[in-house]
Amino acid sequence: MSALAEAEQAAAFVRGRSKLRPVLALVLGSGLGAFADSLKNATRIPFAEIPHFPTATAIGHRGEMVLGTAGDTPVAVMNGRVHYYEGYSPAQVVFPVRVLGRLGVKILVMTNAAGSVNINCKPGELMIITDHINYMGINPLIGLNEDQLGPRFFDMSDAYDPKLQEIAERACSKVGMTVRRGVYIAFNGPSYETPAEIKAARTLGADAVGMSTVPEVIAARHMGIRVLAISCITNMAAGVIKKKLHHLEVLEVAEKVKLGLLDVLGRVLADAARLQ
Length: 276
Ligand code: HPA
Hints:
By secondary structure, this protein is α/β, with parallel strands linked by helices. The chain has a single domain, classed as Rossmann fold (3-Layer(aba) Sandwich), CATH 3.40.50. The chain contains six helices and nine strands, in the order αββββαββαβαβαβα. The chain has a five-stranded mixed β-barrel, surrounded by four helices. β3 and β4 form a beta hairpin. The protein starts with a helix and ends with a helix. Hypoxanthine binds next to β5, β8 and β9.
């Protein structure tokens, strides 16, 4: 079955579970599951029930789609995502984004945890992604193009929507969170990078490093979906300071930033809905 047919089948299943037609979606990284609790008239659908859906396995990822309204805006919140390092194919990693696109989502807001490559950016701060470097050696669109999803060749100059970046920056300053803008580089993981790799990433122009987001952004842009992505800086990347990396530390910092980030997301959502 083609990727399009599978996405359509999954979208049809979701439409059957809820009358809500989301125009905006949030794909939330580790520990941000609480955001969905603020939605009104929520319908929760475990990923495992949706046809063809990959199930999230990483610690801190819940694995469900929640449809509901935030203010007047119908939204879909994805609690959890799958990563390429879990062994899913690139097409499986972006499958949820394609389903969201088929459901009618026009704006995709993503969060992730990232290490700072830039010495000026500290754990606990947020970084609005302005651009990315795909260092994963894969692209989810390799293979036959599905013309009904999008064109074979497409522009990635404004992959991260400038208007949405402004909205996010305003929201962060209202909440009082330190925020920067910068370039995200995606490595495959699951091992954290070596100090030499981080040095190379800095030379290439990256400010933050992570193991997600880039495939989904590519698939979203293929479908013409506008994207906002915010990194929660959880640690200094390898070798930036003399300290070893630990996943628990990443989760701890993400937990501390959580309330502020949830507040930011709520404000972003209210403003972004007006862009429609
Ligand atoms: N590297 C890659 N992914 C990450 C990091 C990191 O330092 N921190 C959180 N996710």
